[in-house]
Amino acid sequence: MSVVYRIALVLVIIGAINWGLIGFFRFDLVAYLFGGQTAVLSRWIYALVGIAGIITIPILMKRFEEDEDFDPHTRIDRNPSYGMEAGEEADFTEVETTEVKKVEKKEPSNKSKNKK
């Protein structure tokens, strides 16, 4: 985003805050700071905010154009992740395997059978 658009957005935000103050509290911050609504400096601020609003219209249209290309069946970042949910998938290729010895069941000896 260019510097002009950023400055315009800041001015639009200032204008929105000022209109919010007027609507909720009947307080015109620009008029209060710069000498009333009819003061030359206040009128310049109002004019700059109005021009900034016109300058930011292409930003609004650009967002709509980008949304038209959105495909809901693909990932937004277009980079698939093959890892596990909790983090990266473990790599067991370098883990040494150990042998597991089978324990054979010993049959009871004949002596214990004869005692019973």
Automatic annotation (TrEMBL):
The keyword Transmembrane applies. It comes from Lysinibacillus pakistanensis. Residues 98-110 have a biased composition (Basic and acidic residues). Residues 86-97 have a biased composition (Acidic residues). This is DUF378 domain-containing protein. Residues 71-116 are annotated as: Disordered. Keywords: Membrane, Transmembrane, Transmembrane helix. The chain crosses the membrane at residues 7-24, 44-61.
